[in-house]
Structure formats: C-alpha cells, structure tokens
C-alpha cells in the first residue's frame, strides 16, 4: 500500500488487487485469521492489532477516502505551470482527483490544457503559411528574422542591407523557381556524404569565388570532404549566390545518405560556376535545407587540385558476414532435417521379378546401437516399421562413419529393375570456366542430402529391408539406390535455379562471384550467399553448419583447390598431386578398369576411350581394390567394364553369389553396389595395369577409405591356404589313378617342373614338348 501522493486512488487500486489475490490463492474460503495475517503482511506493521478483516477494510476505507481534499486538489490544478518535458497526460492526471463533474468545470479543465505547449503545436507554428513570401528575400521561410536567407547580406543592386537584388525596390524583377518534385520515393539514387554536422574534429576549408550572371560574385567558404561522393550546398547559400529567395533548380530523385546512415532529401540540383587559382570550374551541387557550409566531394577536390593523393592505402576490413552472424540470422536453415518440394517415385521395369532377400545376421555388440539408431530415424520420419506383406525386401548394410553408424540397404536386385531417369552430373572441368575473376569462395554442404528427398508411398514399400527387429521401409531416399545420385542432382539444380554465383555438384554448393576488385568481390559474394540462404529457407533445404566454409580466398572443392589464380591439385591429395598427365573424367562416356597382379603387388588403371583417367597400385585383391579406389567415378553408373587377365573371373561374376566358392564370396559382396561386367583380356593387352602391379607406388600415411583396417593384414599377407583338390568332383580312386599316370608321363613331369620353377620369358626358350601349353601357362598350377 502506497501512502504517498493520491492515497485515495492508491487505496482503491490496492483494495481491488487484494480481493483478486484472495480469489487467486483460494484464501477467500479460509479462516479469518488467515485472511487477517495475509492482509497485515501486505499492509505493513500498522495493521497488526486488527483481527477482523472486514473491520480492517472498512477502517482503511474511511481513513483513506477522508484524506482527499477536493478544494486543495483543484487549487493545485489551477496553479499548475508547465515544466520542461511535461505533457498534457500529466496535467490530466492532476485533474483526476478534482472530481470535475459539471460542464463548466470540464471547460475549465480544457482551458487549462489549451495553455500547454505541445510538440504538435510547435510543429504547427514552425510550418509556413501557404502562399506566404518574404518581401526581403522573395522566398518562403519561418517567420523569424534570423531565419531569413537575406539577413546580414547586402543587395547588389542598391547596396542596402538585409535584402536581395531580386526584391530590390529600384528594379522590380521577377524570378521563377522551376522545380519539379517527384513523389516516387521508390526510384532514387543515393549519394554518400559525411555527416552535415560533425563531431568536433579537424576540418579543412577553401574559399571559392562563385559568380552568377544575374547575382554577381560571392566568396563562399567550402569544406573539403574526401569521403563524400557528391557536392552538397545549403539552400540559404544558394540564395546568397543567386541573390534570390527562389533560385532556379533542376529536379532530382537523389537521396543523400549521411555517414551515420540517415537520409537527407535533396531539394534539387544546380550547376554553379566558380574560380579557384585563376581557373574556372563548373560544379554540380545537390541542394538541401539548412545553413551549413558547402561540402566538396573527393572527386571534386582531386580534379580542382585541392588535394593530392601520394599513396593509396588498402585497408583490410573485418569480414562483413561472420559465421556467427549467419548462424544467428538463418538458424533454421542449419537445424533439423530438410525436405525438398515434391515426392520421388521409383519406376520399376514391369517385366522384373520381385526379389526377397534373406535376413542377415549382425554382431551382437552392434544390436543395441543399431536399435537406438533405428529409433532415432523413426522419430525423424526417415524410417517406418512394416508389418504388411511386401514384394521387395532388401538386405541391410551397416557402415560405421567415425563413431556413428550409417544404415544403408543392399538393393542389388532392385537396382537392376529400376528405370533410370538420366540426368547429367557436372564435373569440375565444366564449372571452371564460370570461376573466371573469382576472388572469394564459400562452400556449403547439404545436411543428409539424400534424406531430404521424400519418397511416395509406393516407392517407399520398394525400399523395405530386413533388420534384427523386423522390416522397415524408407520414407526418404536411401543410400545405395542406383538412381539416387542423378535424382538428387536434378532436384538440387531445380531448387537453386536462378541464383547468381552458385555451382552445385551433388550435395556440395559453391558460392562465389566475378569482380575486378576485392571489395566488389566481397560485396557481391555476400549478396549471393544471402540469396542462397534465403532460397534454402524457402525450399526447406538444410545445410550442415560443421562443413560450412565461409569467405575463403582458397577453398577445397571436389578434390580440387580453387584460387583466384586458377585450379590447383589439393595439396592434401599427395598422390594426386604427383600424378602424370591424365585426361578429364567424362560421365557421359563408357568406362573400363584394367587390373593385374604380380608377386610384387597389383595395379589398376581407370580408362575412358583407351586413355587413363586415374592410376592406382597396391598389394590387395585387384578388382576389389580397383573398384574401391575408383568409387567416385563408377558408383551409380549403369555399366562398368573390368578388364582382367584371369579368365575364370568372367564366369564367376555371372553366377549367383551362393554358387561362388567361399573365398571369393566376400569380394563379390563388397562389389555388389557396382554394376560390373568382367571381360577377359590377355596380359599383353593390359600393359598399364601390368606395369603398375610390378612397380607399386610407396604409401603415404594411413590407408584410405578404400582399405578396411581390419582386413589390411589379411590383404598384405596370404595367410589363407586352400587345397583346391578338395573342390574337384573326382572320386578318390580316380584322383589317385590320375596322379599315377602323371608320374609316369615324361611330358607332364616336364610341365610340372616348369610350372613349379616358372615359365621362361619367351616361347622359344621353353621345352618343345610343353610348347602346346604356352597359351594356358597362366592358368596352370601345381597341386601338392
């Protein structure tokens, strides 16, 4: 309870608040002692002796209401004088306790209020009367002597003070002001000048002699402002030069932007003649209200020789757009899972037969982690459990990426049945011509790119796959679908179409611009970046904040280093940096892989039109290594030819996986994501791979993603021994008979020795008795 000021009104408000408090807290139904204690705690120490809340309220009502003295309140009201910054609302508060009830009393209140000076009345007094012209200067201005442009000036006609030549009584001249104003504020040009009224600092001035054919000559002091982009003059100064209160001006749509960011409207433009150091100059001024000294722009100062530039310093400013600003302004673009417009339909060949894979067993230690991952994907609406029958069921594939699991499917049979909607994927060579004069680069990465494409219901059921916890189907486009890369590339191009300075390859988005100077490049780059983020917000495209590379002079993009000077090999790719001359990869041309192995290692060459695109060599299974090494080139292609000098592989890749021997089954499983076609070629025809296999490159650092660490030792050393005779379907008696006949045959004994010790380099050096086996020498082995 506030006992100061208008205690009657204070009491009324306290009483209402107290009753609301009792109801809100449920105290109105409590015992009176509780209510008294509550009231005393709210009122203070003066009410401790009272016991009945009704009595307390009544006494307080009588006490506070009797305090008001109406006559005194009205006396205070009528003797009130307005202080600085006081408003009418404060006066009305003083009138409230006076209880003005009659009309006469209300009029009295209004009379007092009419004496109050308000900001509106001040503006009304400062506004000019329509049609009023000053007889001293001929123009319109506020009705104060010191506001008159002619005040303090002498007439150049009669020589008398405080009026202009145009209104001199000796000669009645008529000057017309030809000003056409434009009300369209949407179309204007912006000129930048320093603040008209500066914070006090060192300034530089020059005195110029302005002359007019009607007004004569005037000496005007002008301020030099090298930061201004236009000349500015006040209307009063122009009137002094023209000796007229209504000088002629040309209409303009220019708005003058001050250093602090505010705008000053221009009344018009005027071209004036001036003389400096005996030379005549024509200067164009923007006219504004006020009485400030004229400002000369940096360009004018340079052209008139007022300033001389000896050294042009380049200042490195801080980035206009910091990552923290981007994340704050476009926080929604970097959070959650996006969903691009439209749904994707997987089209199946009507002649294809549905395939249902059998469930795969996963390690027990991975089950809990896999289940938690599946539950997370269900909450994100990426997966959905399936209980009804489905025609297609694929197997699951678990890939560990860092410390997290990535759940994929193995849609080998589904991919064969899918109809592909072909769409070109850009290459780095295609976008390089668009990067001419680029000086600033940024790279954004789409977050969970494929998952931002929603599948329709029919297509979702085609992606059903097994898990240890039942069947699930993908609601978003999964990894492993053969048509996924092309479809995602198409949608990325569609949603980002029309944006300036952007290039898109898969889920990597490059933002840049082409400008001559660094300052222009930064400005246009930031404009292009903001346009991308706004478009991403509109189409619900989500970006990965961890992979955002913002405003770099050099940036790594698709395995290449983009710089203002051109494209360079990524220094992190040490092997690529040391490559010989390779042809550019063309996604539209057929591809082939050469592979070969020797006792030293293996070699692989990735070819297009018979020319090498990439090389590789290592100690590993040749085809598996070749495909993993060239994964970025062949994954998702309709067909890849593999040239091998091992003839049995050609038949092995045609047979079902279950019909393959135990050892090659692991290799075939790893190669299921590729559409491979193995063809046999002689060793002399695959000389590139043969050369690489005999001279493998030294290794740099840890093995890449194409080599699984847990298999490295097995691949480096042939620790697995297989007795091939166990797989020959020959009875024991027949096998022993073949061994006896071989021991008795001199030709076969000679062949046995040659196979064991090695064939000679040329056919004439071989024993004539075994020359007929020369063609099959690479396929012969000696069984112990």
TrEMBL record:
It comes from Paramuricea clavata. PANTHER family: CCHC-TYPE DOMAIN-CONTAINING PROTEIN, PROTEIN CBG26694. GO terms for molecular function: endonuclease activity; hydrolase activity; RNA-directed DNA polymerase activity. Residues 586-674 form the Reverse transcriptase RNase H-like domain. Gene3D superfamilies: 3.30.70.270, HIV Type 1 Reverse Transcriptase, subunit A, domain 1. It comes from the Eukaryota. The keyword Cell membrane does not apply. CDD domains: retropepsin_like_LTR_1 (cd05481), RT_LTR (cd01647). Residues 401-560 form the Reverse transcriptase domain. This is Uncharacterized protein. Keywords: Endonuclease, Hydrolase, Nuclease, Nucleotidyltransferase, RNA-directed DNA polymerase, Transferase. Pfam families: RT_RNaseH, RVT_1.
